[in-house]
Write a structure and sequence with these properties.
Length: about 290
């Protein structure tokens, strides 16, 4: 794949009950004003109006309404596709189900915003862990944090790897894409789910698959949307994605997330930022399931 094309694709990947962070980013204590987010949404509307953009993501999965009639064929079921990438965002990008607590406006660039697990955790589960977990310039992860994991699938014949670029190859530049989204809450509990296992993959029937996707977190909400990430706060994403978002949250051992960030085939070592929730009905598809 050509470098310039790969770079374009990589920019789209950012396609997630908090306690005080040891490395608290500035935006956590000094979020941008509501007006900043409102202006970003207004620019998104202006930059997409009557330009043929398809439905966008993320969205409130509890709301079925949408006016965007741009049609594209739904991608096959994920087990009929190849897993191409796994990455995660700090806080859920989507809203609804068990992740409906707004984290705040953040820095206006995708950090410190999104949605948190709306349930309760025990003091033991919230006990701080030693050391920094998946640190970056925007802070690290802590017990009690919410993440949205994106298991990305492609109809192209590929091998799982880094960025959305792994979902394409030289033989097909426009494969169908599907994202299976699962929201997790990080807990200090060695008996909670192991993130290494949750992101494990292998070949089944000739296709790469995530081998341990949760099956007990509710029926997925399926809808037509796009790639996500804060780069699209003010412009539309041109990439069409079939989404499946599970409405219930699973608890994962935070220590295993830290170990995964130290080395994985996807070259992921920190959480990505989130795109503003898309609320403009003209940029949303109708959920018909």
């Amino acid at each position: 794949m050509k470098v310039n094309y790969l770079f374009l694709l990589a920019t789209t990947t950012a396609i997630s009950c908090n306690v005080a962070a040891k490395n608290t980013p500035v935006n956590a204590t000094n979020p941008v004003a509501d007006q900043v987010v409102a202006e970003q949404r207004a620019k998104l509307a202006d930059n997409t109006k009557e330009k043929g953009f398809g439905p966008q993501s993320p969205r409130n999965i509890d709301t079925v309404q949408g006016n965007n009639s741009m049609l594209f064929s739904a991608a096959p079921a994920y087990n009929d596709m190849n897993l191409c990438n796994i990455h995660f965002h700090k806080n859920a990008e989507h809203m609804g189900g068990e992740f409906s607590q707004y984290a705040g406006n953040g820095d206006g660039k995708g950090h410190g915003s999104g949605y948190r697990y709306s349930g309760s955790l025990t003091q033991a589960e919230l006990t701080p862990v030693a050391g920094e977990i998946c640190p970056s310039k925007n802070g690290s992860l802590n017990a009690g944090d919410t993440i949205e994991v994106h298991y990305v699938y492609s109809t192209a014949q590929i091998t799982p790897g880094a960025t959305l670029g792994a979902c394409f190859n030289d033989a097909i530049k426009n494969p169908q894409l599907r994202v299976e989204a699962q929201v997790y809450v990080l807990v200090n509990d060695s008996t909670a789910l192991d993130f290494g296992k949750l992101t494990g993959f292998g070949e089944q029937d000739g296709r790469y698959q995530a081998l341990n996707l949760p099956t007990n977190t509710g029926q997925s909400i399926h809808y037509a949307g796009s790639t996500t990430g804060p780069a699209y706060n003010e412009k539309g994403s041109p990439f069409q994605v079939s989404w499946g978002v599970r409405p219930q949250v699973a608890k994962v051992n935070i220590a295993t997330v830290g170990e995964w960030c130290k080395g994985n085939v996807f070259e992921e070592d920190h959480a990505h930022g989130v795109r503003n929730l898309v609320t403009n009905p003209d940029l949303l598809s109708e959920i018909t399931q």
